[in-house]
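Deliverable D4.2, example record:
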Amino acid sequence: MVVVSELTLQSIEAGRIVQIRHRLANVRTVDADDRRLRLLVISCSSAKRRRPKDKIPAIQRYDGIFYKVLRKTIREGTVDYPLIVAIISAKYGLITPDTLIPAYNMKMNACQAKTLGPVIRKELQKLINKHKPGAILINLGKAYAAIIRNLPELNNAVRAAGPIGKRAAILKSWLTDDNPS
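Output generated by the structure prediction step:
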């Protein structure tokens, strides 16, 4: 899994594409003891941009409220710490915001969870053990959360729960808080 060191965001405003670049600290050079490093674990979104049909970065393709909050927070420049975003995709498993994906329509179901679950758990464990993030936020729906339930590396993670609006507020607060729990 590639760690996000630079994000390129594109949003459609008034019919034109606006590119916004945000440079994050390269986590490969962050000291393992740097407790500023954060990990966000988020699921893919049923709301997806259908165009272009060609592959585009996941952070641009997914267009649900959590992705809108993430893109806006980064665009506003309040993310000034190393951040790893791990996306659990119903189709592709554990991916990064920079992973190029085409338009698709798939939701996590029991069969996919059983197939993808062990691989996702193993990749997420490796990611956490390698980078030792100082703060972790899990923002997943029930079907996605079940995949990583009881993962020991996530015992101290903050878990966003409740209705979507509340979970979006938790995400924004966690991203902008200087000392997230």
